[in-house]
Amino acid sequence: MAKKVTMQQIADQLGVSKFVVSKALSGKDGVSDATRERVIQAASQLGYFTQPRGYGQNRKQPANPEASSRQSVLVLMPNVRFQTAGSLYWGRILNGVTEALESFGLGVVIISEQRVDAVTSILNPDGFLGLIGIGQISTPLLLEVHRIGLPMVLIDHEDPLIPADTVFAGNVDASVRLTGHLIGSGHRNLYFLGNTGFSRSFRDRWIGYRTAMEEHGLPVQDVGDPMNRLEGIDGAVYEPELRQWLAKRKKQGTLPTALVCANDDVALVALRNLEPLGVRVPEDVSLVGFDNIHESGGGTSPELTTVHVPKEAMGRRATLRLLERTQDPKAPLEKILISSELVMRASVAELRTETETITEK
């Protein structure tokens, strides 16, 4: 049996005191961000976070099983980069979580704060059944939740240092199918639009696009391309940059025949800026999005080909997984993928080659 990894071992490896390691791992003030990061990395390498009966394993289960049914669940969705309850993506996931909790008769406390000290002030392990995290959450905050032993499930986010159950949409597979649909329609000059650093889902959609392109031997733009790093996530912020890029490509005669967008918002912004350039969708450029928000199917012409992400279902499944975790704390961790479906609409046209046209004649 492997020996238990202690704070003293971590301290010895880094040449700091055990007191510094303790503060860094507990998220308390008194250590610099650089030192905290060094401690976390060393602890991870030594296996401190994953060892049995170690970090995060000290929470006592309720003596009376019925007592847990009267507890609340903490739902953490830090308000960062438009990750809000009003979002057509994140908000729907939150709705799925809260509806499921209500159906089980559980209370819910929703926190949008991202400061560790503000959240830890209410983290009473005896007052919450567990935590459901939605979207991006900082490592120090997750470490604090893990430190007190509160069971947690993360939605659309994972942290390599924090062992936790996770729930994702099948973004990679869906993006492969979506890109494959364009390639199957004759398109060979495709371009990805969106901020791949915004979220795990955006990055996975880029990976799916790249995978499909590489499988067909087609050129892929560099991951550092400006159109992969569109500023922000709000169209009002990145629209000028995207408009300038489209106009430049139109003038040069180098517009792609198809645009694969990280989500429907990006696709709708692109559509709005192609029309003034005299570029028709789908006759001149095919356009696809992701998420299947309401506007993609009822508020635009042409209606947008996209991927339906079952957002509420992700929230419900995360809730169920949390309850399963509380009943079996030692069960293997799970990464749950919820399948997403392609929604075919009018924004994609078949691209016919000259050879095909001549053959038909």
Automatic annotation (TrEMBL):
Gene that encodes the chain: purR
Keyword Repressor: yes
Source organism superkingdom: Bacteria
Family matches, as PROSITE patterns: HTH_LACI_2
Keyword Membrane annotated: no
InterPro entries xref list: HTH_LacI (IPR000843), LacI/GalR-like_sensor (IPR046335), Lambda_DNA-bd_dom_sf (IPR010982), Peripla_BP_I (IPR028082)
PANTHER family cross-referenced by the UniProt entry: HTH-TYPE TRANSCRIPTIONAL REPRESSOR PURR-RELATED, LACI-RELATED TRANSCRIPTIONAL REPRESSOR
UniProt domain HTH lacI-type: residue ranges: 5-61
SUPFAM superfamilies linked: lambda repressor-like DNA-binding domains, Periplasmic binding protein-like I
UniProt-recorded name of the protein: LacI family transcriptional regulator
